[in-house]
Design brief:
With about 140 residues, the chain is mainly alpha-helical. It contains 5 helices and 2 strands, in the order αααβαβα. The relative contact order is 0.15.
Length: about 140
């Protein structure tokens, strides 16, 4: 949730609701307060919910990192309960793997298997669909 509206729901949220800047600011503050309270309650209990997802699970595959960077990254996540395990990790293979070689796919798979925590997803999503038109636009 940002002052420009929900980030994943509807790009026309503000236009459709008629929310003012002050109302959006209030909504964002309320959302952040709620998410902070949820983190403080759920994470210590070993819980998870969708908003904890971190889309940056894949940090090495096809990133052209140096050997030193690779070692540092693996050392930071290949240990008991690293900080990254506090969020679900999304390991995305871009463009559904289009244009990748077998060796590239092996890199994505190896990184996923070595660094994932208890909540992890490997995805090979295609392009996302376009947002629906605003109700104001469709009238």
């Amino acid at each position: 949730m940002t002052p420009k509206g929900p980030t994943e729901e509807d790009r026309n949220y503000i236009a459709d609701t008629g929310a003012s800047k002050a109302e959006m600011s209030s909504q964002v503050d309320a959302y952040r307060t709620t998410m902070t309270a949820l983190v403080k309650k759920v994470v210590p209990m070993g819980g998870y919910w969708w908003q904890l997802m971190d889309g940056g699970g894949s940090k090495l595959a096809k990133k052209n990192v140096s050997e030193a960077q690779c070692k540092t990254t693996l050392e930071s996540v290949c240990k008991p309960k690293p900080d990254s395990w506090n969020k679900m990790q999304l390991y995305n293979i871009p463009s559904g793997g289009k244009g990748l070689q077998e060796a590239d796919l092996k890199q994505y798979t190896a990184e996923f298997l070595l660094t994932r925590g208890p909540y992890a997803v490997r995805s090979h999503a295609q392009n996302t669909p376009k947002a629906l038109p605003s109700t104001a636009e469709s009238r």
